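Revision sheet: structure tokens.
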Amino acid sequence: MTDVPTRWYSRPGIWFWVVITLGAALRFYLVVFTEGTQDVAIWERHARDVRDHGLIGYYHGDPSANHPPFITEVESLFLRAAEKSGVPFRIFLRAPFAMLDAMTAFLLLLLLGASQWRFLSAAVYWLNPLSIIFSAYHGNADSAVAFFLVLCVWLLSNDKLLAGAIALGVSLWIKLPTVLAIPALFFFISNWRRRFLFLTVAAVAALATYVPPLIEDPAIVWQNVFGYRAQILHTTAGVPAWGPRLLLFSVIAAPQNWPEPLHAPILLFLANSWLIAVALALLVTWLRRSVGSVTELCATIAGIYIVVLALSDGFSFQYFAWSLPFWFFFSRWFFIPAIILAGGYIYFLYWYLCGNPWLIGNWDFAGRPYWPFLIVALRNAAYLLFCAGAIWFLISTTVQAFPNRR
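Predicted:
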């Protein structure tokens, strides 16, 4: 027998380490030398309010205060550290998530196992604009969602049930969107006793940092954190950033051109789009409840978030980060163009809003209400791709769950 030569992309040659170095350098540059989006200023205001008024006072004083208690208190400590050290708060805010993203790339490499594409996939993840911008530039905690989900899946794949449950629980200290994947994780576990043990440990770990503020003022914590709903994002001129209203009112027809009898059903759909998205995500999770491989679990998680991103009317740019590493387990016809189109959309939009390709300067979303054709075209193409991915996932899952019987 003769040895089959390995492809360059199936081993970590010099190309791989060049990519790793370049990705790290780009993240360092963005963390240290750029200002980030308006979320950086919002987080700094939140941190200052917690420092000045306490956590509960902050929740009462700011209706937009929607982050969990733990990460809010941590950012307040970062503000104090910034004031004492002279290091800008924006660096303290973004550096931890840039480092978490490095761990996400490493875990993605591990999850891909013996796949010949594992090093190339990890390199693409590490060097694509979405992961770089959302972890090191944007200035929010959404990239932590992907990290904790990938960590949880990797731990479960290695039969570390309790550690996986703790990872899931800790994720809820920072962001809540990991709850969308809980049903898929639940069904992946082999038996009911282990499933309920997993949920119990995850719940105890999650509640550990919520208990003190819940004891002090449960109503305000419930209202601000658990009752928060994502807002519709559009420019001051009404240009939508994403979502079904983009398809309905920008791609298909302007609002005034829709027949009068369709107005009420469309408005009803838009008002409840997030509920419809969650219901469909739960449905496909149930239909895929018997999948037993890690690869299929990751594909299920990718599909859940793709459905939510396609149908939910509440969207912020960084929400792509929730499921980005799981796209590599979805069909190639989706994840390759998704990275290109969504990555192009985000990079060129951020370039436009900052005024330069290096993302130097102040983010000016309000001052640039009309977007250039290239950005609008990339946005539309990316959104239509996510719609196609969601439809394909729903149909293929249903077909597989109910095969034709002779």
